Amino acid sequence: MRAKRHQSRSDNLRAALAQEAARIMAEHGIRDFLVAKRKAAERLGLSEMSAILPKNSEIEEALAGYQRLFGGASHLLALEAQRRAALAAMRYLKEFEPRLVGAVLSGTATEHSDVQLHLFAERAESVTLKLIDEGIPHEVTEKRIKLTAERVRPFPGLRFEVDDQPIEAVVFPQDGIRQAPVSPVDGRPMRRANTLEVEALLEQT
To answer: Could you read off the pLDDT of 154-166 as tens digits, one per residue?
Structure first.
């Protein structure tokens, strides 16, 4: 009976931590799950109880619930704007076979979220040159991507804006389209959506 009570208390604490981490991500624009977990644990006075920290997938589920409860129509309008900006960027960069990934695709994006794209090219400079040719202000970046449970490597990227929405694009080699990186949420291959799939998402809203 004592073990059952202990398990129930642990489950309740995990749920409370997941909900607080979700609130922190939604309200403060924090994108890193581990940072949100630690801040939530500190706020609940549980900083030493790492064994009960919730999984990233539990936080994402709590985030979706938070947005349904508190976001309402404003969340849906913001998400639609982010997806429309994603679609515009994808159409513009169509020769690089763009894919939408991350929170804007899953629907858990907050107003602070970037639109995340995966692009595929022989040379990352090809994407840069296209933006330069069109006079689009941009920043050259680099992002570490988890390809498998054990393998992490940096990839070139670009940051720019479409319709006042920040876009974060990571450029993979052309054969990178065959295998998606590992999702930071559940450790499975990351979900990627092509232009037609993003169009279909917008038709549903």
So the answer is: 999 999 999 999 9
